[in-house]
Design a protein that fits this description.
- The structure is a single chain.
- The protein is α+β, with helices and mostly antiparallel strands.
- The chain has one domain (7-165).
- It has four helices and six strands, in the order αββααβββαβ.
- The strands form two sheets. Strands 3-4-5-6 form a four-stranded mixed β-sheet, sandwiched between helices. It has a two-stranded antiparallel ribbon with strand order 1-2.
- The chain starts with 22 loop residues before the first helix and ends in a 15-residue tail after the last strand.
- Mean pLDDT is 76; it is low at 169-180.
Length: 180
């Protein structure tokens, strides 16, 4: 398990920081952490697949309503972390597209390294998905990040891929920190 996997257990719930969980979120988070039942078994209304009582399907359903908001929240946390370090940054920079037509998740507004702005792209890998093979999620995410087109038409950017895991796996290597 990652060194930081349980860090949320020590966080003080502060509304101004956005980390105060409501009763339902806390109940679900603790149930997931303990492996307790989260819901009654049923069929997902969005995709039609069977949902088990462990509630893991809601974390990986491609048609889930909270998927976009979770991705947005992760990118907001990354941006705030960069800004709190004194580096101005923006999310989804306009006019900057990869070869596949998608935009990076964010960019620093000043040079980061070797005179180049830093681009980031957050990926969340699901270690509890039915298709997950123990130990392969981190490797697959790293390969996806390497294969993802990086040509934005600008040679003034350096790129970092940020991979997060929905559920800790004891087979994952410790987190690697990006070098400035």
């Amino acid at each position: 398990m990652s060194e930081y996997a349980g860090a949320w257990l020590n966080a003080l719930p502060t509304p101004s920081l956005g980390n105060l969980l409501d009763d339902d979120c806390l109940r679900i988070t603790v149930a997931l952490r303990l492996g307790a039942a989260v819901c009654q078994p049923h069929r997902c209304q969005a995709c039609g697949r069977e949902v088990r009582e462990d509630g893991h399907h809601g974390l990986s359903c491609a048609f889930g309503i909270s998927r976009g908001s979770r991705h947005s929240a992760i990118n907001e946390v990354i941006k705030r972390a960069i800004v709190s370090a004194g580096v101005p940054a923006i999310r989804e920079p306009p006019g900057l597209c990869r070869a596949d037509g998608k935009r990076p998740d964010g960019m620093t507004m000043v040079p980061w390294r070797h005179g180049k702005a830093l681009l980031w792209d957050a990926t969340v890998s699901d270690t509890v998905a039915v298709s997950h093979i123990v130990g392969s999620t981190a490797e697959a995410a790293e390969l996806r990040g390497k294969r993802r087109p990086t040509n934005t038409g600008h040679t003034l950017n350096s790129k970092v891929a940020i991979c997060l895991f929905r559920w800790p796996s004891r087979h994952l290597a410790p987190a690697r920190k990006a070098k400035p």
